[in-house]
# Entry
Amino acid sequence: MIDLKSLTIKEARKKLDEKEFSAVELAQAYLDEIKKKNKELNAYLEVFDDVLQQAKVADAMIAKGELKALTGIPIAIKDNILIKGRIASSASKILENYVASYDATVIAKLKEQGAVFLGRTNMDEFALGGSTENSAYGVTKNPHDTARVSGGTSGGSAASVASDMSLCALGSDTGGSIREPSAFCGVVGLKPTYGAVSRSGLMAATSSFDCIGPITKTVEDAQIIFDAIKGEDKLDSTSHFSQGRSLRKEGKRIGVPWDLINQEGIDPKVKENFQQAVKNLESLGYEIKDIKLPNCLALYYIINFAEVSTNLARFDGVRYGAHKDGKNLLGDYLLSRGTGFGKESRRRILLGAYVLSAGYYDAYYGKAQKVREALKQEFKELFSTIDLILTPTSPIPAWKIGEKSDPLSMYLVDIFTCTANIVGVPAISLPSGFMDIESLPAQAGKKLPLGIQFMAPHGGEESLFDVGKKFEGDFLG
Ligand code: GLN
# Structure
């Protein structure tokens, strides 16, 4: 029996190499777990039927000594990342039967390493949301309390790692979609520097914010995957080679935006947990400094709506997507898009068209771009006085399925995460403990995970791994 609960990529690598178990045995162990749990949690939209064949190929590589970091490592892939010959639906009805015609660059890199793809994971449609409740294929439940959401938009990926239905996963992050579900599910999630990982083959949500990144159990595992997928790519003109920057890896100055954290709307238990994390970091020798950070939600959403409405224009039922016949061409479009897209996608298409319209462009989108530049400058100055920024990952823990009925309350959850995407800096969410759920007697004894987030300057992933390992080590005792 392989003990999946405590298994990490690092240990699996060692045991595969030492032939303690084979890639086929490892893959089978995950398939068994998926069989037991996925019906209830709904983390996977599809489990691939050739998992064991893929694992056999990995075993052959291992037998030949062709060892790479991820050879034989089972990984779950978010449903907006293309794998050639497989369906990629972005959890939307409009792409229900869309089959990818090429591999995303990250997939090509993982294939080359001999990773084993377990399946495609559930998400909010087109990566718009924060709970996977916007999926056209049902919500992903939180493995720690199935009455609650797993977070989103990479909820399926985070839940699969947290429930041992995968060893690790890829997610995408436009405003928090790797970090928030990681925090809700008690796992590690990294949003890399914008451009450090190629976006080729990732379905675009907000092209200037989108990043692919790992969701894992440990910081070291996140680093292993990041190293395997990063790098400049000629298929993504915004990608760049981010290594080799002179960063203070051992930076000990951590800025905390207390004003932003001490606002109304932050759950008192989140605040308490955060204050404890700050104390732990102080005892590890970090210096905590009070900094000011603006609330960037309005800025984030104006740019998000604008780019989403533009990016989703390609799904017209002609070039891509399910086609519905109307009376004429316009009728075709209206019917295909009207029935193919879910509510949140339609909302953002409308709002995006509005902020980009001739009369309002300058007031909204144009102004947002100016503010974005000013914010980048502000961050540059900030990072000359501190090495890292620390916040809770989310202002609230995982909520009950269906509890948030208005979109605005869901948007507010991104208050700490969206800033890194606007500026393009890397950020990591780390598990920071649990809170008791006391509200319902039936839930007594259940605990919900919480997370903290570090941001570093552009290209500063190494400093995130460094502080992450120390915090995690201290935390796990
Ligand atoms: N919650 C944010 C949004 O709805 C972030 C989503 C994401 O990162 N993909 O846009």
The chain has a mean pLDDT of 95. Residues 127-130, 153, 173-177, 205, 304, 414 surround glutamine (CB under 6 Å). The longest strand covers residues 427-436.
